[in-house]
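Module 6 notes. Inverse folding takes a fixed backbone as the condition and produces residue identities as the prediction. Think of it as a translation problem where the source language is geometry and the target language is the twenty amino acids. Below is one complete input and output pair. Work through it position by position during the lab.
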């Protein structure tokens, strides 16, 4: 952990998506309100405990995000994702903006709690233990052996354990090499970040599970907003 966080870290927030499934077609998804504050507020409020340097990958209604972020006391940069080609593609856009180590956070994932960072972590992914298989089915599954991640599966049909992959990633720049050799998925024709991570694993990269203890949610539907309002 110490080695990872000694780097000049930046937190990359992916917030190019729309809020259609949340019945907010005129807003970027990350600007939808929870108790009169946008989702983005809670993301920044959590991750600024680690770094005050943020990169926002924007797209739909980007001016709303840029205008809001500029009212906050953080160091910010903006990169536009003109076409939604997947999380892997979005991450590739920040290659010229990040240092050796960086964090990636999805703009619709919130948490309240603490991560348990492995000592001398090189790279890692957030992992949350849940008793609800539906949490895993709408995210991705994680298998661990000998304190490292050995398999990830996007939106799995078969649940093998209680480990839910989170929308939080702790990357080294080597991830860009793997994004370049990861083809779009046949299902959505997008570069899935889980496909990239699996290529990294298969290529011999050590990916640590970064266990999270607390509340976590991937916001997809209106009822998820209601759940968040109980925690924030």
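Target side of the pair, the amino acids:
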């Amino acid at each position: 952990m110490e080695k990872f966080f000694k780097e000049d870290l930046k937190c990359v927030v992916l917030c190019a998506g729309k809020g259609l499934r949340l019945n907010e077609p005129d807003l970027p998804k990350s600007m939808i309100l929870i108790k009169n504050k946008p989702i983005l507020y809670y993301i920044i409020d959590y991750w600024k405990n680690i770094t005050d340097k943020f990169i926002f990958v924007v797209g739909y209604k980007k001016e709303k995000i840029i205008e809001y972020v500029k009212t906050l006391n953080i160091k910010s940069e903006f990169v536009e994702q003109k076409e939604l080609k997947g999380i892997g593609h979005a991450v590739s856009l920040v290659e010229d903006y990040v240092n050796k180590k960086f964090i990636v956070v999805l703009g619709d994932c919130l948490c309240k709690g603490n991560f348990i960072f492995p000592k001398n972590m090189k790279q890692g992914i957030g992992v949350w233990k849940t008793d609800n298989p539906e949490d895993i089915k709408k995210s991705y599954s994680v298998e661990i052996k000998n304190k490292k991640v050995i398999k990830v599966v996007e939106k799995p049909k078969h649940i093998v354990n209680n480990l839910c992959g989170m929308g939080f990633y702790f990357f080294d720049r080597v991830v860009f090499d793997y994004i370049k050799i990861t083809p779009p998925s046949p299902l959505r024709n997008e570069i899935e970040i889980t496909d990239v991570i699996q290529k990294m694993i298969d290529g011999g990269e050590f990916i640590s599970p970064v266990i999270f203890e607390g509340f976590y949610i991937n916001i997809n539907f209106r009822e998820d907003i209601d759940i968040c309002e109980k925690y924030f």
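Reference fact for the lab report: Residues 193-202 form the longest helix (10 residues).
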